[in-house]
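=== Structure Prediction Worksheet ===
Name of assembly: unnamed complex
Input type: mixed (protein and possibly other molecules)
Chain count: two
Listed entries:
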Amino acid sequence: MNEILDAKTGLKEALPTVFGYIGIGIAFGVIGHASGFSTLMVVLMSVIIYAGSAQFTTVSMLAAANPIASIVLATFLVNSRMILMSTTIAPFFKKDSTVKNVTIGTLLTDESFALGMNKLNYTKSKLSFSWFNAVNLVAYLTWIFATLIGAGLGNFVSDPKQLGLDFAIVAMFMGLLYLQVISDHSLKLTLQLTVVALTIVLTFISMIILPKNLVIIVVTLVGCGLGVVLKNAFFK
Amino acid sequence: MPSSNEILLTIVLCGVVTWLSRVIPFVLLKYVKLSKGVIEFLSFVPIVIMTTLWFSNLFTVNTGHLPTLNLAYAIATLPTFLVAVITKNLLAIVAIGIVSLAVLRAMGMA
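=== Predicted Assembly ===
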């Protein structure tokens, strides 16, 4: 990663995220197809909802004929972390037009958010529309394409996991977390490591006591709150 | 299985709530300045969310019971982490992660 913020650099730097989208996108297509949805509907979910693994929730609830309101609520809850990510990213685009802001927001993902946060460590805390939009577009197009492949493959492949692609997303978030911790000097290293350790504990406890859909948003809210408390109590 | 219209309506509504979650902060923050406390809170979002997204993916959730560890994922994390420390290169990290898991599966783990 470097300090250049043009579209071409964005395309290049988005490459590592592509594997995650391909892995999950294909899996989503296969599962959507296997759950009885037409290729068109499965692809429309990726085009319109565009919510990564949250779409698995949508598909399984739809297939089980849950009421529409509860499906929409579950999808909202799983994706409510987007509010926090958008709020974190938006200040870097304050000078850009509303149209550009809405464009960035519309295609923002966990991956482009994490990549953008990493990029800040190389650019003296600046982001550009062209860089971010390029990253977002790579993500969106790969996601749709992978879904289409998966829905088509559904007839032939029963287990998309054989290739190990499902681990791409886990490896990627671990990698982005590591790179973030070693390169972000705005928070002290000991504080960051403490927050990471606490978040791991919080996540584990939440997985026991909370419904799956609530784990990420609750842990994020509590974890960030604890971070603020720790910072003010011990790391001033 | 619901009808095509019901499916389509659900997709559109899910799309709208997700889109609003993404876009509203961008529009609002053009006009509202965040307080120092909120900015401090948000400065923890990246590491907390990346930790949760990584760690929760290593498990299968069974609410009310202990989550089930995906052993192959946990083992594959080790070489992947090593590559992260050595290369600091995201593409290498992801590639070795995929290969590690494929090798584990080929060996009959998972």
